[in-house]
Amino acid sequence: MKKVYYLKSCSTCLRILKELDLSADFVLQDIKTEAITETQLDAMKTRSGSYEALFSKRAQLYKQRNLKDKTLSEADFKHLILEHYTFLKRPVIILNEHIFVGNAKKTVEAAKTALEAL
Predict the structure, then answer these.
(1) Structure confidence by residue, pLDDT tens digits, 54-68
(2) Whole-structure pTM value
(3) Integer distance in angstroms from the first to the last C-alpha of the chain?
(4) Cβ contacts of residue 114 below 8 Å, gap of 6+?
(5) Where is 6: in which H helix or E strand?
(6) Angle formed at CA 50 by CA 47 and CA 51, multiple of 5 degrees
(7) Closest by Cα among 80, 77, 103, 116 to 4
(8) Strands of 2-6's sheet, edge to edge?
(9) What does the alpha-carbon distance between residue 10 and residue 33 come to, in Å, rounded to a whole number?
(10) What is the DSSP string of 38-105?
(11) pLDDT tens digits for 74-94?
């Protein structure tokens, strides 16, 4: 499976997609216009190890709801990501059994290395 979950209106996501120069066999899913399903999220969790690893603590709603002051469980992270797309750390790149979550330079470089190895 070759898939990218991203936000079309996010300049960082678009820059990373351009930098990675993905082949045509990648499926791109704009999470704002096509919501993530529970099945898709569960598949991401299986690869990443936890829902928290997929959760963006930079989301404005995270701050607005004072979630940093609360102790969140894995079920809470899952529920929040399914509730609103901004809680998913972006982009999420799935390359067969590998997953690359977020826009950290180290993550993008790892994704680039994995793509070159194909």
Answers:
(1) 999 999 999 999 999
(2) 0.95
(3) 13
(4) 95, 98, 100
(5) strand 2-6
(6) 110
(7) 103
(8) 27-30, 2-6, 92-95, 98-101
(9) 13
(10) HHHHHHHHHHHS-SGGGB-TT-HHHHHTTGGGS---HHHHHHHHHH-GGGB-S-EEEETTEEEES--H
(11) 999 999 999 999 999 999 999
Q: What is each CA distance from 29 to 13, 34, 84, 87, 100, in whole angstroms?
A: 12, 7, 15, 16, 15
Nearest-10 Cα torsion for 28, 111, 14, 49: 70
Give yes or no for a contact between 54 and 44, defined as CB atoms under 8 angstroms apart.
Answer: yes
What's the CA gap between 106 and 72, in Å, rounded? 26
Residue 4, strand partner residues: 28, 93
Interaxial angle between packed helices 38-48 and 74-83, expressed in degrees from 0 to 180 and rounded to the nearest 10: 130
